[in-house]
Amino acid sequence: MTTKSRTAIVGVGATEQGEIPGESANELAVRAAVLALADAGISKNEIDGLVTCKSPRSGPDAGTDEAVGSLLGINPAFSSTLEYGAGAFSLHLAAMAIMAGLANTVLLTFGTNQRSNGVVFSHAVGGSKDWSSIAGLAHEDQSAAMAARRHMYLYGTTEEQLGWVSVAQREWAAMNPLAIFREPMTIDDYLAQPYMVAPLRRADLTMISDGGAAVILTRADRAGEFRTTPVHLLGLAQQSALRTTENEDNVLRPWIKDIAGRLYSTSGARPEDIDIAYLQDATSVWVLQMLEWYGFVGAGEGGPFLAEGHTRPGGSLPVNTNGGQLSEAYMWNWLQLREAVVQLRGEAGERQVKDARVALHAQTHDFWKGAATILSTSEEI
Amino acid sequence: MTRPKPLPDIEDPLTAPFWAMTRESRLGAQRCGHCGALRWPPRPICPECQTPGGEWVELRPSGTLWSFAAYYRALDPSFKEDLPYAVGLIELDDGPRMYGKMVGDPEALVIGQRVHALFTAVAPEIALVEWERDGDAPDRAFD
Asked: pLDDT digit of tens for each residue in chain B (143 aa)?
């Protein structure tokens, strides 16, 4: 079964990434929005929908649709803000607005200045009501260390195999002018790094950075009216795991498999149809897990697959070809969405994956929920 | 200036019974008065049947190490003096999974090991639950 596209991305934009002092999250969101509008070849008056993403640790009104919309000087028919609007979740909300007839062309934008705000993850997050903080777990993402350890225990995955997530992404980042970490890193360099939280090293964990990213989504039947090659959304799926630690296995997150199953059945795509994959990488462990749950390999086979180099430049399944959050920037999977579009359009320059036609864009909100989309320049698989 | 370690709010009505039990070296969790489901962490209503409240019952202070994260640098500076240490996720013999600080050398930990609770006084009215491996050979038979 295949589903014909109903929405398509016709514009993307990104500011520089890194440390951008003196610019608020909302200014960065607006600057990215202006770039996305220019990419689509339209003015802000052609936008009738706005989806914004609350900006983490960037101030009280950072990323609200009210604040961003007033800076953009627009009164769109539809506007909304997600509390956790990381890439795929914002994309899905915009697609729903279009499919429901609430808007025709939606601007989605995100900005953050958490780096310049001096945000550090190295504090117990939950305080006196958080059981893991009391125990000394310094950040919820450090449960990823538990996930890695458990994968190693069950399947014999090695630290070196896991290291290939970060090493491969660094190889991609070296070809991406936008990326923050571009200096070469070999697997020996990786293994020589001290543990941040064993068995994870610095290179297994995202950086914290400032920047903006934006996307323009429109009705598929109007996508031809824009200057860019449209990138269609061929399938969307989500799954929550809101019971978190009370679920059967909250560290390996088997519920991601439910997203994959629904995504493949609604889009008609199979894992072997996917040319490039964007797997959100707050930690390298999430990439390992998603390779398995999205069916590129079987459960427990992710380690050898990574070590064989399939995700590296020239590999059979290029993953996070922008360098991902581990090497490019901490942009909540928004830049991976942009990269998927740029690759599918064939505009990725030195790092272009030859004949890339179908992309998977997938992410999780740690232990709470996940979302994924199949993207393609074709209107159906 | 380093912040002190996070300590539980022992006057929070929802969790106070747990800390009252740890002071007596007992491990507790809520059991629903309607459907009987055991729940952890504490909640004001039963997630299974939405019945408010619940009775605190004593759990066996033993379980199996499900997984752990080991710290060799203090990502939370208030834990600097504890280095190296590990935080474990313990699958209790009575069912629920609980985070807890592991006592002893993180290098000695193996998933699947049997562990038992220690009740460590950290303030006059506060005893935290920590976990120690039983010292047996690790049980590699998973599930």
From this structure: 466 888 888 899 999 999 999 999 999 999 999 999 999 999 999 999 999 999 999 999 999 999 999 999 888 888 889 999 999 999 999 999 999 999 999 999 999 999 999 999 999 899 999 999 997 544 444 43
Selection from A311, A152, A281, A151 nearest residue A205 by Cα: A281
Give the number of domains in chain A: 2
How far apart are the CA of B102 and the nearest CA of chain A, in angstroms?
Answer: 8
Q: Which CATH architecture has domain B60-143?
A: Beta Barrel (2.40)
Nearest of A197, A88, A86, A192 to residue A148 by alpha carbon: A197
B112/A153 CB distance under 8 A: yes
Interface touch A138/B71, C-beta < 8 Å: yes
Residue A321 inside a domain? The answer is yes
In this prediction, the residues of chain A whose per-residue pLDDT falls under 50 are: 1, 124-128
Q: Do B87 and A135 touch (CB under 8 A)?
A: yes
pLDDT per position as a tens digit, A338-353 = 999 999 999 999 999 9
CB contact B71 to A (< 8 Å): yes
| Domain assignment of residue A307, given as a range | 139-206+234-381
Residue A366 resides in a domain: yes
A53 and A71 belong to one structural domain? yes
Residue A127 lies in a domain: no
CB contact under 8 A, A143 and B101: no
CA atoms within 13 A of residue A193's CA, in its CB half-sphere: 21
A202 touches chain B (CB under 8 A): no
Locate the chain B residue with the closest alpha carbon to A127.
Answer: B6
Q: Put the strands of the sheet holding B27-31 in their side by side order.
A: B38-39, B27-31, B55-59
Compute CA distances B84 → A25, A376, B133, whole Å.
Answer: 37, 48, 16
Place of tokens 């960037």: A58
State pTM to two decimals: 0.94
Q: Taking the domains of chain B in order of start, what are their residue ranges?
A: 12-59, 60-143
B85 touches chain A (CB under 8 A): yes
CATH number reported for the structural domain that contains residue A50 in this entry = 3.40.47.10
Q: How big is the A-B interface in CB pairs under 8 Å?
A: 111
Whether residue B42 is preceded by a cis peptide bond, meaning omega within 30 degrees of 0, is no
Same domain, A186 and A294: yes
The predicted-structure confidence for A165-207, as pLDDT tens digits, reads as follows 999 999 999 999 999 999 999 999 999 999 999 999 999 999 8
Residue A113 lies in a domain: yes
**CB spacing of A146 vs B76 below 8 angstroms:** no
Q: Mean pLDDT in chain A? A: 94
Q: Is residue A293 domain-shared with residue A167, that is, in the same domain?
A: yes
